[in-house]
Amino acid sequence: MSQVLKRIAFYAFTAWAALTINFFIPRLIPGDPVQALITKSRGQMTTEAVESLYILFGLDKESSLVEQYFRYLGQIATGDLGMSFTFFPTPVSEVISGGLPWTVGLVGVTTVLGFLLGTALGTVVGWRRGSLADLLIPVTTFLSSIPYFWLGLLAIALLAGPGSFFPASGAYEIGLVPNPDLEFVGSVLRHGLLPALTILVSSMSGWILSMRNMMVTVSSEDYVTVAHAKGLTDRRVMVGYAARNALLPNVSGFALSLGFIVGGTLLVEIVFSYPGLGLLLFQAVGAKDYPLMQGIFLMITLSVLAANFLADLAYLALDPRTRREG
Predict the structure, then answer these.
(1) Which of 26, 148, 215, 230 is most buried, judged by most C-beta within 10 A?
(2) Are 149 and 266 in contact (CB under 8 A)?
(3) How far is it, in rounded angstroms, from Cα 193 to Cα 191?
(4) Which residues, 6+ apart, have CB-to-CB distance to 229 below 8 Å?
(5) Could you give all domains of the chain from N- to C-terminal order, each with its CATH number?
């Protein structure tokens, strides 16, 4: 129990540090985002409107930086991430909530599938090293070295185009209204198939390699030899002894992958014009939309922290050596 409390305290401190850094970064960037918004509106604003914008975005010059900081923490506590410059006057929380389901649906599903399939194949390949299963290694090594976006461009060039089953961009057909009917769901699945396969092929290859290497390492351990000597079946030794211990390093990598789901696969979403958080972040950087960048970075940071916390709990459950007192 003390280990869990220590981890909670550590992650709470890290979350506070992330919030603090997230507050100061926009204020250290040269330029005045409010003036940029005024320029975008062709200067058609009164002095009172300009002052209201400074207060709205938490950049009013009459209050000190400390006052702005505590006001920012209060806003975060209530879920207020500010207003987006790009989609003004839409709140950042609404902009993010619009892109988050698309990112989680695409990157989340492919990350989990890639981990499960890659880990299972890596377990078999590592356990049966020296057999024909090892022919999978050169292929996975090549695929894991290819960036997501390059595979995406290749997939569009080879599989998408006029008359093709696979759309080259978007999340659903133009003109459809998002609703749970079969036509809309089918369109979403068809549009998400190519980017999902792009992410799945590349990520699964990495899991296969890492799990295969760990299986080769643990196969020579004494506890595996003892399990064989007990007369246990080969499958039980592979799954219950070798794979369980070889899985531990992959748990950390999987937790990081889950955390970065919120950020999306930036270049893949850009290549396929997929309306997730990755594409939103690209648009925010291009438009110098500091509140939106700030909100997305905060979501990514907190997601990674939460995923790592869950990974620590998984370590406590899987590895008895981590369950120590004092």
Answers:
(1) 215
(2) no
(3) 6
(4) none
(5) 2-77 (no CATH), 92-321 (1.10.3720.10)
Q: Rounded to an integer, what distance in angstroms lies between the CA atom of residue 49 and that of residue 139?
A: 60
Q: How far is the C-alpha of 299 from the C-alpha of 94, rounded, in Å?
A: 13
Residue 251 has pLDDT above 50, yes or no: yes
Task: Look at residue 324 and tell me whether its pLDDT is greater than 60.
Answer: no
First-residue to last-residue Cα distance in the chain: 11
Q: Which tens digit of pLDDT belongs to each residue from 280-306? A: 888 887 777 777 888 888 888 887 788
**Cα of 204 vs its chain's centroid, Å:** 15
Rounded CA separation 302/190 (Å)? 31
Q: What is the pLDDT of residues 225-238, one digit of tens each?
A: 888 788 888 888 88
Q: Following DSSP, what letter does each residue of 140-163 receive, concatenated? A: HHHHHTS-HHHHHHHHHHHHBSTT
Please check whether residue 323 is in contact with residue 124, taking contact to mean a CB–CB distance below 8 angstroms: no
pLDDT given for residue 265 in this prediction = 66
* Cis, bond preceding 89 (omega within 30 deg of 0): yes
**CA–CA gap between residue 104 and residue 297 (Å, rounded):** 16
The Cα 90–Cα 84 span in angstroms is: 6
Tokens representing 131 are: 């057999």
Q: Are 307 and 50 in contact (CB under 8 A)?
A: no
Q: How far apart are the C-alpha atoms of 164 and 150, rounded to whole Å?
A: 20
CA 99 to CA 90: how far, in whole Å? 13
Q: Tell me how many degrees the CA angle 52-56-60 measures, rounded to the nearest 5.
A: 70
DSSP calls for 268-314: HHHHTT--SHHHHHHHHHHHT-HHHHHHHHHHHHHHHHHHHHHHHHH
**Residues 176-197: tens digit of each pLDDT:** 777 777 888 888 888 888 888 8
